[in-house]
Amino acid sequence: MVTNELGNSEKENKTEQQDPVAFFDRVYELYEKAESASGGAVNRFYNIGGFKIRLRFAGDALIPYMTPALAHLETEPFSDPSLTVCLWDSTSTNTIMPPPPWQRNQHHPKRGEIYGFNSDRIHTSFQWGAFALSMLDSDRNLGIYWVETTEQIPYWETGSPLRTIFNVWMNKRGIQLVHAGAVGLPSGGVLLVGKGGSGKSTTALTCLNSELFYASDDYSLIACEPTPTVFSIYNTGKKNADDVDRLPFLAKAITNRDRLSEEKALYFINDHFPEKILTNFPICAVLVPRITGKTDTSLTATSAAAALASLVPSTMIQLPGSGKEACQIMMQVLQQVPCYYLELGTDLAQIPQVIFNLITK
Length: 361
Description:
This protein starts with 9 loop residues before the first helix and ends with a helix. Helices cover 27% and strands 28% of the residues. It has helices at 10-17, 20-37, 63-66, 90-93, 155-159, 163-171, 200-206, 269-272, 304-318, 324-334, 350-360; strands spanning 41-48, 51-58, 83-89, 122-127, 132-137, 142-147, 175-178, 180-185, 188-193, 213-216, 220-223, 229-232, 236-239, 265-268, 280-291, 298-302, 339-344.
């Protein structure tokens, strides 16, 4: 049993508030204790956005929650990771996280960044929905993810784990995590942008039943150099529970059917359609889905500014650590490719065909 070694005195809190590196180091010490208490590290290795990334677990309790969404990017072990993320929970490792050295209101109200604990080197944020602490030391390329217990991890966290750490680390390398889906062919595809409910998921998931390939329906990595490119990060898909019957070919892939009264349907595409996933492709166009209620699907040309207005707000509000540099990457990508409204009709079979015709014309 590891006890509260950080203490909670006002003097100690004040010191740590002035030094986010010291707080990171203390949490990392706790991770190492948790790793020792659980019998050692369990490593998983991935190629994400072209980078070698190691997930280092203290025990195996978090593995079923954190790895299925990344399964399509898992690789053979390597010894030279570009980024290592240490993951642990208190319950299974019997390693207590002490009370945080900040006040409850000392954080960004939407995104969770902790005021006073963020710098060019250290990122610290807390996700209240998952009750999860995410930290990144950019100098050491070392991240830490902690939760109290796996029982508090919501389904959407399992569908897109470690968003904060990946977002901050990738951004420093010119790659931006965005709230967007992506489908296409190895020669090129489209980025699907828009707020929740606009039709991104329906569009992306429908393409699984076509000639097109799938990269994501909700989050993607994009880069503007040397050419606009999208990278798959999560192989998951989500769909409103009252709308899953429109995609009957996906019925057997729903992982949380017993909880659809409270959750969206969650699909792990790699488990059922591994041959349909592409890890990256050039971006040929950006599409902004719009539900029309009509039968047919069509395209209407629009401006990069309109597409940017559909992409930036939903990305910025969801992802801690997103700032000016994130906007610049998104803007540079959208300025290099044509943008269209995807006028979604009710005949779903037309959607992938319209996209296929656009990217192969």
